[in-house]
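Minutes, project check-in
Item: structure for the 184-residue chain
Input as provided by the requester:
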Amino acid sequence: MKKKVVLLGDSIRLWGYGTKVPEMLGEDYEVCQPEDNCRFVKYTLRGLFDWHDIIKNADVIHWNNGLWDCTEIFDDGLFTSEEEYIENMLRVATLLKKITPNVIFATTTPVWDEFEWTHNDKIERFNEIIVPKLKEIGIKINDLHALVSKDVHKYIKECDMIHLSDEGISLCAEAVCKAIKEFE
């Protein structure tokens, strides 16, 4: 019987690693993911209702949120406050854990330093505040941030300075597959 894997996350998943993971995992896995960009954590929280049929009966769920949340697009602070991020991430995690005990959170990937609206110090802060709390409730961590940080200019596209390059997609897809297979 195939293992059902659900991928949830923003465009790093949608246009990034989510494009390669189904093929890389192979025929022993049924990989399901929303056609929608899961954007920021509150959007994902709301989406869990709409994506119920995609998520139900999952054996493993791999999920990421963060880039939208720690963005500063209006010069009036972060899109999502730290407190709101923690609260809603824990709500999402708790709901996902009711579906399967095998939940993986992928840390938020870095951007080029020149990217105007999201800054690496904020990304690092959001990862720093959420990872220990998710670990406390039994969420496995897939540290994509650490992988991509090794060479941001190689793994993040120059044209937009935020999305994964072809090399970044391959790197992250391999890490996602490895994390998923650890539940075998």
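Outcome recorded: The chain has a mean pLDDT of 97.
No further action items on this chain.
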